[in-house]
Design brief:
Elements lengths: L6 H17 L6 H10 L4 H8 L6 H13 L5 H9 L4 H12 L22 H16 L7 H10 L3 H8 L4 H9 L9
Length: about 190
């Protein structure tokens, strides 16, 4: 599948691996793909993000991703669902961090030494890249670009999609910016 990726999409994947390594994460996840997209300049996805005003809110996006990592990757929707069951995620985080230190639930390993070789891609990152392929095919695009990765993140449930939506970046808004009109069909 990677032979169909554009230079920009390959750079996003490589950047996601770097973000995972810097965080000491055990695998590359969808959130790492989003962080790598935020790093890009001069690509279709970076154009869409800038047009939607995310450049001014990039720090807030990175902070929201960090907060989700601190919650062990739980989205706000997950946190609210657990609260409905009487489970206070904030209290759990406080107790775990009191016993094991700040960021204990984040899964960060605090260094690169533990891992050798390439980090595996987690379920979320794999699903995002597969969805990017389906979006490109549905649009009859010959190659998978970083814009397809961005579109895939907007439709995939979880932290990345939630954080993007919270900042006004939805499948519809990205489609409108990239292709005009917003009349493009979603890929299934």
């Amino acid at each position: 599948m990677f032979e169909r990726f554009t230079k920009d999409a390959r750079a996003v994947v490589a950047g996601a691996v770097e973000h995972a390594e810097e965080a000491g994460a055990g695998s590359v996840d969808a959130e790492h793909l989003l962080l790598a997209l935020l790093d890009r300049e001069g690509s279709r996805a970076s154009f869409a993000l800038a047009a939607l005003g995310l450049a001014e809110r990039e720090d807030a996006v990175r902070q929201a991703l960090g907060e989700a990592r601190r919650r062990a990757g739980l989205s706000q929707a997950d946190t609210e669902a657990l609260a409905g069951l009487g489970i206070d995620v904030s209290e759990i985080i406080a107790r775990v961090e009191e016993a094991h230190g700040a960021g204990a639930m984040a899964g960060d390993r605090g260094g690169r030494g533990r891992w050798s070789g390439r980090r595996p891609f987690g379920k979320g990152a794999k699903e995002t890249l597969e969805k990017a392929l389906r979006i490109a095919v549905a649009r009859r695009d010959r190659h998978i670009g970083d814009e397809h990765i961005l579109l895939a993140l907007t439709v995939r449930p979880g932290v990345s999609g939630e954080v993007l939506a919270d900042h006004g970046v939805t499948h519809e808004s990205v489609t409108r910016v990239l292709y005009g009109g917003g009349g493009a069909a979603k890929a299934g």
